[in-house]
Amino acid sequence: MSVAKHHVMIKGVKDGLVFLLNDACDWQDLLKELQHKLEKTHQQILTGPIIHVHVKLGSREATEEQKEEIRSVIKQKGNLLIQSIESEPRKEAVVEPAARMSALKGMIRSGQTLHHEGDLLYLGDVNPGGTITSTGNIYIMGSLRGMAHAGIDGDDKAIIAASHMRPTQLRIAGIISRSPDEWGIEEAFMEFAYVKDGKMEIDKLHQLHRIWPDSNFKL
């Protein structure tokens, strides 16, 4: 029966040898290759005076019985002195939460304030004197004629978009918009505000892909 290769790597270090054992292969295949290298292929570097050996198991969590099996195999070479058999702590995969958007509907009248945590799709109008704020992005399917503040906790990558954009004021993070009269857009239709180089800019909504080429919204 042929022995699978590369389950065991033996590296020379300053104070001896390090045995790097594959943490994904079958345990019995691992032991067979370890035995094979000790007896057949690596005799030259495994002979002579006492050699200190450190065994690295990768992320494999070996039982005491399995560690003893490794010791038994290596001890067959009388000059190999095992110093340690160690596993590396398994790295937890960092899973980014999927971007979630909440949808709300209604009308924000003068004197009213709506605050939301996360991205907000608002189906309705924000009247003059009304305020809509969010820690994330704000998308208004209606008229924005009041005040909107996106990225309220400091996210200057947030945007504010509206079907009809005529706000009294826009804020993204700590940046406040210029007067709507200075935007240079004659028609207030389907636009969005975003921050570029520390200043707020206004553009047509169909240009959103330029600043978010890989955007992927989930409702």
From TrEMBL:
The keyword 4Fe-4S does not apply. Keywords: Cell cycle, Cell division, Septation. Residues 8-85 form the Septum site-determining protein MinC N-terminal domain. InterPro entries: CAP/MinC_C, MinC, MinC_C_sf, MinC_N_1, Septum_form_inhib_MinC_C. SUPFAM superfamilies: Cell-division inhibitor MinC, C-terminal domain (SSF63848). Residues 105-202 form the Septum formation inhibitor MinC C-terminal domain. It holds the Pfam family MinC_N_1. NCBIfam families: minC. PANTHER family: SEPTUM SITE-DETERMINING PROTEIN MINC. Cell division inhibitor that blocks the formation of polar Z ring septums. Rapidly oscillates between the poles of the cell to destabilize FtsZ filaments that have formed before they mature into polar Z rings. Prevents FtsZ polymerization. Interacts with MinD and FtsZ. Belongs to the MinC family. This is Probable septum site-determining protein MinC.
